[in-house]
Input
Amino acid sequence: MINRRQFLYLTGAGAVNFLNMNGWPLAKAAMASSEKNDFFPDVELSLTATPSEVQIFAGQPTTVWQYTGQVIKGDPTNLMHLDQSYLGPIIRVRRHQKVRIHFENNLPARSIIHWHGLHVPARMDGHPMYVISTGETFTYDFEVLNRAGTYWYHPHPHGRTGHQVYGGLAGLFLVSDDEEDKLDLPSAKLDIPLVIQDRAFNPDNQLVYLPRGMHDSMNGMLGDSICVNGRPDFKLSVSTRAYRLRILNGSNSRIYKLAWSDSTPLTVIATDGGLLEKPIEKKYVVLGPAERIELWADFSKYPIGTSLELVSKYFEAAMLEGDMGPRRGMRGGIRLPNGAPFSVFKIDVAGKAKETRLLPDKLSAIERYQPQDADNSDNPRRFSFFMRHMQGLINGRTFRMQEVADDERLRLNSTELWELANDNRSMGMMMMPMPHPVHLHGKQFQVIERSGTLHSGYVDEGWKDTVLLMPGERAKIVVNFTDYPGMFLYHCHNLEHEDMGMMRNYLVS
Ligand SMILES: [Cu+2]
Output
């Protein structure tokens, strides 16, 4: 079905008309029009954000906010719908495809979509200054330049991102490419998306957001129901063969310390920005909000009837380093605090497979950066993340929509060394210790150095767009700003911290 607005657009009535009908200022529409002249999409999709109901439990359905999608041009496999889930459809495209996505806002709130991890022009990145109101449409045009990997999309309206993502607005954005094809990794039904999110439900099966107010917003939203693909009772039935598990931590604030219940090491094949050079084994993997890992999970060694679990193990979420010694942070009566152990989902080994695939020794080629590769290697740009007086701060500054400070201005075509710090102490005052997962928009970077207590659970071997900093931790990253001038965000991806202002712009020019 093509609605009237799309029809006008497709018949060449012109982008300006289309945009003006949606109440955009003329200057913005004209700019969009000139950009569109030479853009011929391979894939064209519509994504609508709308209030909806999902049957999660027996009895009353749960009211959610949901993305629904349609393929306007392309292949039906460009969108994969999850059954009985509040999550949006999985977008599947190939590298170098040109993608046009019409985002239609049917929510009773302003919103905009951010393509998390994708390297797209500033105007296509979902900066909150581009929010649209109820009934309006924002059209995204971009070429997919990213490597094959597990990316995702979610809303980004300032001050409401936590609320909207929690309500159900999120989906995976999977990219494949020729390099990945050659590996012949487990595909189709053996390639399993797993979006892990915690939620709190009231006795009427409705989502509860920040029930304890201020204390909760400092910790962030922490629910006591662990949902996988939108289901609190998620179970995976597998046969005795190898699977590719794509795991996204889509939680607002929860950190997972993932491990197999039988202590088999995890075999990690990819991170935020796609495949690693070679598989690596980990006793456990620590995954902060927004981070992704892909696992190679071979069940061929298990007898039929085996039950396994992916678990999240205990860790100390609010460790104070130095002379204070370990101490629990403020937890305000949260039933399942960050660091508490639980089962994420169950796996039943139910079927016998005739054959299994073998794990490739080499997955990809990654050119590793050294600190001296950065143009500012003797003088890293330093960003310090902390919370004070209910305000999220980066280098002491909170978010302002259009503001860029001197130390946030970068040169196009530069390679930069950044030092990110989670500071417990600022100006001699003791700050409340809390983790900060730091995300850069529009870029994949490399983590070249870091400190920390959960160190052995970090996978820093590949490309990343989000790096978890536990209290007192620091990480050095190298980022390359070779193209796409303009204003992009960097922020804490604890969504409540982000909404409290722990977000800033960087400007590439
Ligand atoms: Cu934070």
DSSP finds seven helices and 32 strands in the chain. The two ends are 42 Å apart (CA to CA). The mean pLDDT is 89. The CA atoms of residues 309 and 346 lie 4 Å apart.
